[in-house]
Amino acid sequence: MYWWPVTPVAIEAAADPDPGQLADIHAEGFPHAWTAADIAKLLNDETVYAAIARRDSTFGSRNPVGFVLARLAADEAEILSIAVSTPYRRVGVGRKLMEDVLRHLFRERIGRLFLEVDAENQAAVALYRKLGFKSVGERAGYYREGREKPATALVMRYDLR
Ligand SMILES: CC(C)(COP(=O)(O)OP(=O)(O)OC[C@H]1O[C@@H](n2cnc3c(N)ncnc32)[C@H](O)[C@@H]1OP(=O)(O)O)[C@@H](O)C(=O)NCCC(=O)NCCS
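# coenzyme A complex -> structure
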């Protein structure tokens, strides 16, 4: 059987990532992917915090394998998107990205972090619950694009203070 090792991953605050590479990762995770231009705009927005997971390679390549974007407003924040490239899923990258955001928000004295997630997205809902997010609301029929049946969005919250 063909086997390729999943190399260790380091999380860092976005230092000039390539928006095209992040758009490719986004496209693996969402039916309606953001373009590189959409992502570039968010990376240049000073209210947005971005953390990137990079593959540590002995060959020198440090390609991104996941990212998270969060918007800060007053004492609250919102997850705009999180995505991990398929071969790097289920090895703790998503959790590390979210923990990085939570540390950053704590340092910025943010009180509450919100997010919306498709109630049927078992991986994401499990990740958020494991981190300590609580469901605080539901929006029935919220996700419509590209679906036969509209899906419910769960609104989740994490209290930092
Ligand atoms: C959701 C996503 C970011 C999770 O990233 P990940 O790196 O695979 O997650 P982790 O490996 O850190 O998993 C942490 C925990 O989340 C839960 N989890 C993650 N993937 C899961 C899955 N497929 N099924 C069930 N639980 C899962 C588990 O509790 C896991 O802990 P464990 O491995 O010790 O059991 C990833 O699946 C992804 O990019 N999905 C597509 C984009 C997306 O849906 N983003 C969220 C939109 S709100």
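# post-check
The pocket of coenzyme A is lined by residues 29, 82-84, 89-95, 117, 121-124, 126-127, 130 (CB under 6 Å).
The helical segments are 19-29, 36-43, 93-107, 122-131.
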